[in-house]
Each structure stands twice: as C-alpha cells, then as structure tokens.
Amino acid sequence: MRRLVPVLLGVVVVAASCASDAPQTTLEPKGPKAQSIDTLINPVFAIAGVVFVLILGGALFVALKFRARDDTDYDEFPNQVHGNFKAEIGWTIFPAVILAAVGVVTVVGIFDLAKKPPPEALQVEVIGQQWWWEYRYDIDGDGTFDEIITANDLVVPAGREISLNIKSRDVIHSWWAPALN
Length: 181
Known about the structure:
This protein has helices spanning 4-16, 32-65, 85-113; strands spanning 122-128, 133-138, 148-151, 162-168. By secondary structure, it is α+β, with helices and mostly antiparallel strands. Among the domains are: 27-65 and 83-115, Orthogonal Bundle (Helix Hairpins), CATH 1.10.287; 122-174, no CATH class. It has a 4-stranded mixed β-sheet with strand order 3-2-1-4, with no helix packed on it. The two termini are 41 Å apart.
C-alpha cells in the first residue's frame, strides 16, 4: 500500500498538469440548444457526484468501522439487527423523488430539443462515409443539396439556425459537434 501512494500521487500530478495552455472546451455550449443541454447536464452530474460521494463514504465507513479485529471470534454471530422502517422509507422515497425530478426535467429538455427548426434554417445534409464526412448545403432552400459540398469540416454562418439531416452511406457512424453538445 505504501508503494501505491507515491504512484497515485504522481499520476494525479501529471494529469493535473496536462495541457495548461489548452483549456478543455468540449462542453462549452455555443448555441441555444447546446445551452439547453448544458443546463440539464450540469445539475444531473452534480446530483450524481453527491450521491457517489455519499455512497462511497458510507461504504468506507462501514468497511472500516466493522472490519474484523484480531480478537474476533469467528464462531460467534454478531448482533443481528433488522430493518428500521423510517430509514427504509427514507432511502426509498428520497431517490425516487430525485429520479422523478431528473426525469421530468429531462423530458422537458428533450421536447425543447425536438422542436422542428424554422423554415428559414440552413439545411445541411451530413453523410457519413467510411473514413470521412460529407456536408451538402441547401443554400437557396429549394431542397437540392448540391450547391456547396465540403469534406470533413462543417462550416455554418454565425447567428443562423441550421438543420442537420444526418445519414450514413455504408456502416454505422456517430457524429458529434463538441461545441453544439
């Protein structure tokens, strides 16, 4: 265990010092839809973090407090304690309320994100190829996507809503614009 502490400390120091001149901007929202996603994600992560710390703290407390001692008689059963009704109701209802609240906020956010874009939104067809992405723009709004075609880089005008129609030509692809979440 004593050998592990310096190694872990070294890993933490190295990880903390990585890319100090290049801040991580992956989850910085750059539009109203991305802001909506960010507004949903941050409280959910905070709640999950608090729950994680509480559960891990409780587990460590129980493991350390009730660990076997040198003078333990393994033939003797420890004191048997049966349920505490109030505690059981509490730890059943409290998580259910948290899950219901997160569920309601999530559904509201999903409905907000699922709204159709306005007709004047720039239509972009995103086609996944095996080794690259193809972007076809409908500049004049007539439904044809052959006015401008680019490869790998999505370029859109600032301040204008866009609608992405994502397709795949061959295999399953995942597409993500980090700044749009």
